[in-house]
Amino acid sequence: MPLIDLGYPLSNNTPPFPGDPSVEIKILASTAQTGREERQSLNCGQLTLPIHCATHIDAPYHFYANGPTIDQIPLTDCTGPAVLLDLFDLPVIDAQHLSSHREQLTAHHHAILHTGWYRQWGEDNFFTEHPVLTAAAAQLLVDCGVHLIGVDFPSVDRPPHEAHLVLLGNNLLIVENLTNLDAIGPRPFDFSAIPLAIVGRDGSPVRAFARIND
User: Fold this and answer.
1) What is the distance, to the nearest Å, from the Cα of residue 178 to the centroid of all Cα atoms in its chain?
2) Can you identify the CATH homologous superfamily of domain 3-7+51-212?
3) Which one in 52, 131, 178, 203 has a CA-CA gap of 20 to 30 Å to 122?
């Protein structure tokens, strides 16, 4: 069963969300370095980055002080059968755009929204003009029993973050900044986005992927 990588790679050039610090990868040791007597025998690095950078997952604690932190999230909520919804050319995704998919959403519990916005990655407007969900769209996902939503843009909304509040307030996980969704197509698939168990925190970088179930 083929696996499709749906996440962005991390490097010193990975753009952070505006206002967040940049990704920094330092070399702590390298086989190319030489010491006083002999060459180093290993490569080792250090990674520093904002939690909500590149492809990542939001835990309820991101907006709710009493919500589950990312280390408390059941891994079963982070993987499973998913439905891919094509929602192109919609600057605002409202409940009416999702209502025809109620049966699929109820059956799969993982909803991946494919808007094509990931093609703007690296462009000046990527973080400022992306699609958003309304609170009504978020509530429809909750009503359908969705456990996780994934989107190919950097945030499900903008301040005052009404969609975040509805989704995370109902313990629905959010995966942002997916890419390469075109490669999935109409085939049935499982979606996975496994977080690091960062104790007491609001989210985590993820390696997101689809497993095609042909």
Assistant:
1) 6
2) Putative cyclase (3.50.30.50)
3) 203
- Provide the sign of the torsion angle of the four alpha carbons 114, 116, 117, 123, taken in this order: positive
User: Could you tell me the pTM of the whole model?
Assistant: 0.95
Render pLDDT for 39-97 as a digit per residue (tens, 0 to 9). Answer: 667 899 999 999 999 999 999 999 999 999 999 999 999 999 999 999 999 999 999 99
Residue 206, beta-bridge partner list: 195
Domain ranges of the chain: 3-7+51-212
Tokens matching residue 188: 């049935």
For residue 122, give every residue at least 6 positions away whose Cβ sits within 8 Å of its Cβ, in sequence order, or none: 15
Query: Which of the residues are catalytic?
Result: 62
Distance of alpha carbon 152 from alpha carbon 121, whole angstroms? 10
